[in-house]
Specification:
Strand order of the largest sheet: 1-2-3-7-9
CATH architecture: 3-Layer(aba) Sandwich
CATH class: Alpha Beta
Structural class: alpha/beta
Radius of gyration: 23 Å
Strand content: 25-35%
Number of strands: 9
Distance between the termini: 89 Å
Helix content: 40-55%
CATH topology: Trna Endonuclease, Chain: A, domain 1
Shape: globular
Oligomer: single chain
Amino acid sequence: MPTTSVLDTLTPILMTGGLLLLGLVLMAGGASIAFGAVIKGARGERAVRRVLTRHFEAVHDLLVPDNREARSWTQIDHVVRLPACLVCIETKNYDGLIFGSARQAQWTQVLGRNKHRFQNPLRQNHKHVKAVEAAAGGTPTQSLVVFTGRARFPKGLPEGVCKLEELIERLV
């Protein structure tokens, strides 16, 4: 009868544990990438908040019931009160080249050789505008998307999009 060593007995357990550990490391890596994006986004929102706070009456990180979906909420980066209307502002802190138009469902970010598709932020903000209009009793509400990073738009900025440097002039 062959003898079984302790190592033979533990190998399947160690391999399973190793695979589990590898899975956890990979998940943590993905989480750290996602967490990095959250931090970068928060940094962009803080930059917009600083500009708005100096010049306008605004609220930030507003949760509003989504009037299109029961028991659903939508988070709005900033809402600015102007004399004639409210303005919902969606902040994007992106770098690289951005390709997209107002009508496209997806836009593309190009960083070197890497391409990343993301939801058209104008469409994302449209949902915010409708929720604010409903919550504010039909008060006229407009949309504005502000890019705070080093993003460049080789084909020009779509209507309803501006860079942080242009934010004040877009609102006055």
